[in-house]
């Protein structure tokens, strides 16, 4: 059975969808660990309730008194995150609301085996505010995308998409809640169907 590590930064609703699918036997995979960049991430509590091991790897922004080359803290964090995830020996890494860009060490170690979700129909509205940006632009249809994570900002190979109508009077929160429903079902399906030998072409 596929071994899956989930990366979380927030409340963990996508993680919960995966946990629920694992519990009812429809995931076709085993979540073996949850890793976060934030000690206060709600997703960690969900992992604890499910009896899963967790690791927190914060990005330390403190400036030490010793001179450091540009990007040294980021590179160190990337290496630590890579080691933390590798300790679980995953077949697949799932970014489930993980709000950090993954670095070169991480992507090289898990080449083609890292997927994520985005609350817009990529390549439209990449970045941290996909729902807000879609509303501001005035589109009538947006949606959710599951994709393979690469070194860019939401630029990886698209694996699945589902459209979501923008309704009159929608707020960022109301629209995002409907997008999350699409994200959850697609993410479960992609994880279920993922082959451990699958790689980016």
Could you characterize the architecture of this molecule?
It contains 6 helices and 7 strands; from the N terminus they run E-H-E-H-E-H-E-H-E-H-E-E-H. The protein has a single domain, classed as Formyl transferase, N-terminal domain (Rossmann fold, 3-Layer(aba) Sandwich). The longest helix is centred in the last third of the chain and has 22 residues. Helix 1 links the parallel strand 1 and strand 2. A 7-stranded mixed beta sheet has the order 3-2-1-4-5-6-7, sandwiched between helices. 35% of the residues lie in helices and 21% in strands. The chain is α/β, with parallel strands linked by helices. About 3% of the residues have low confidence.
Summarize the helices and strands and which ones pair or pack:
Elements: E1 2-8, H1 13-23, E2 29-36, H2 42-49, E3 54-56, H3 72-86, E4 92-95, H4 104-109, E5 114-118, H5 130-137, E6 141-148, E7 158-165, H6 172-193
Parallel strand pairs: 1-2, 1-4, 2-3, 4-5
Antiparallel strand pairs: 5-6, 6-7
Helix pairs in contact: 1-6
Supply database-style keywords.
201 residues; alpha/beta; Rossmann fold; seven-stranded mixed β-sheet; 6 helices; 21% strand; globular
- Report the CATH architecture: 3-Layer(aba) Sandwich
Please provide the ordered H/E string of secondary-structure elements.
EHEHEHEHEHEEH
Tell me roughly what share of residues is in helical segments: 25-40%
Number of helices: 6
Give the overall pLDDT as a whole number: 92
The Cα radius of gyration reads 17 Å
**CATH homologous superfamily assignment:** Formyl transferase, N-terminal domain
Number of domains: 1
Which class of secondary structure composition applies to the elements? Answer: alpha/beta
